[in-house]
Amino acid sequence: MAFSSSSGQMKHEVFLSFRGEGTRLNFTSHLLKALKHTGINVFFDEDTLEKGDKLSLALSQAISTSNLSIIVLSVNYASSKSCLAELSDIMDRKDTGGHIVLPIFYHVDPSDVWNLAGRFKTSFDDHESEKLDQVQQWQAAFVEVGKLKGWHIEGGKFDR
């Protein structure tokens, strides 16, 4: 079921944030199918974005018009600047507008997220080496989402 916002835009019940590489064709596609099967209106970039849309603006609008975000934190999530920008936007809306955030720790240890350890540390070190202004904001959002109660999926033969 979809709702209209005051600006007349479609309002999604769920914004799904994930790193396509590594999750799109397995866990995330199953999650999307299950959510849609129950009648939940999900913003999924491949289904919803039109060719020619300005990506960052379209994603920010989709986040702001959604009731909650599900964040699939996989081993490569922090390597994506666009995922980190989404996450930062999501966590800002959580803090200021009561946006609900549900993390899924997919094949990652939640403590590695909130401690910025392992591959996450490497990803943030790479972003810092590029001297990007947003890195501190991204790190803060990443650490904050790591501290939220969520689901830890260790994976196995049944997650595909």
Automatic annotation (TrEMBL):
Report the coiled-coil segments: none
**Whose protein is this, by species?**
Gossypium gossypioides (Mexican cotton)
Q: Which PANTHER family match?
A: TIR DOMAIN-CONTAINING PROTEIN (PTHR32009:SF39), TMV RESISTANCE PROTEIN N-LIKE (PTHR32009)
A Pfam family reported for this protein in Swiss-Prot or TrEMBL? TIR
User: What's its catalytic activity?
Assistant: NAD(+) + H2O = ADP-D-ribose + nicotinamide + H(+)
Keywords on record: Hydrolase, NAD
Q: Which InterPro entries match?
A: TIR_dom, Toll_tir_struct_dom_sf
A single GO molecular-function term is: NAD+ nucleosidase activity, cyclic ADP-ribose generating
Q: Does the keyword S-adenosyl-L-methionine apply?
A: no
Which example biological process does GO assign this protein? signal transduction
Q: What is its EC number?
A: 3.2.2.6
- By what name is this protein known? ADP-ribosyl cyclase/cyclic ADP-ribose hydrolase
Say which domain of life the source belongs to. Answer: Eukaryota
